[in-house]
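Dear colleagues,

For the upcoming journal club I promised to circulate an example of a predicted protein-ligand complex. I picked one with S-adenosylmethionine because it came up in last month's discussion. The inputs are reproduced below in full, followed by the predicted structure.
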Amino acid sequence: MFSYRHAFHAGNHADVIKHLVLIHSIQYLQEKDGAVMFIDTHAGAGIYSLRDGYAAISQECQGGIDRLWSSQEFDEPDFGPYREAIGQFNPKGVLDVYPGSPFIMAHLLRPQDRLRLFELHPSDTGILQTNIASLDKRSQIDIRQQDGFAFLKSLLPPPSRRGLILMDPSYELKTDYQAVEESVREALDRFATGTYLIWYPVLQRPESKQLIKRLRALSEEFQRPWLRAELRIAHSLGERRLQASGVWVINPVWTLAPFLERTLPILQRVLGEDTSATFVLETSSPA
Ligand code: SAM
């Protein structure tokens, strides 16, 4: 337990697809004035240096945000809000730091919105608290050093009945797969109309394959629309690094599928390492 530090992975291809989906969904929900509660059940440290510390050792961002940032295709309007969110924390225009989901969400908060963060790692909780304390919008943000799986339900339903929940575990523990299912079930019981973004690694392990089936069954049991988006950058058997990941979305904003139809092929082209690069986009109600 607790060997995972997101700093090693900040800005990798998995962060790119996850944060692109996150930003698009938030901005759609904010088209209406009503307050939205944003919840990050697995927050991480908040913001990461890409050029020193853990990220510099792993260099995972080179296969993710570094590639996209220097690609002309990143100038496409669809990437504008993502570029702007990252640019906000790199005011000189040079990509030195990468905002994690708490900083991305904080950047997008309107005065009426609230952000609730769970982080269990003692070191990362401390770093997250220090990082969030530096933000102007800190009074709208609450940090809890608690198990996000277990305590998510305590925040639901949000008073405004409008909410987006990001569930982004490390899957460091095999039990995380089961915990995702249980936590989402409890959450849907209390707040079936929330938008849920659940990130997952695409691995050969049985529990990884089972998770997709279980999330599909759960979405159907609650009669909720869903969307599945995956990005694969390479496909080398036996290789230990993460080569593909996805996001399962329950109650996706209706613009998300067309948005991903446009952007996933670009991510495949820019982040793909060879011809095995591919993507999946599937929804409960095909257009
Ligand atoms: N959401 C972050 C982002 O996109 O920038 C990255 C989160 S990282 C993948 C997962 C985090 O969850 C780690 O920082 C880990 O310490 C934390 N964690 C692990 N188990 C947890 C639990 N049960 N509840 C809350 N946080 C947990």
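Two points we might discuss: The CA atoms of residues 178 and 211 lie 8 Å apart. The pocket of S-adenosylmethionine is lined by residues 4, 6, 15, 18, 40, 42-44, 100-101, 118-121, 124, 147-149, 168-170 (CB under 6 Å).

See you all on Thursday,
B. R.
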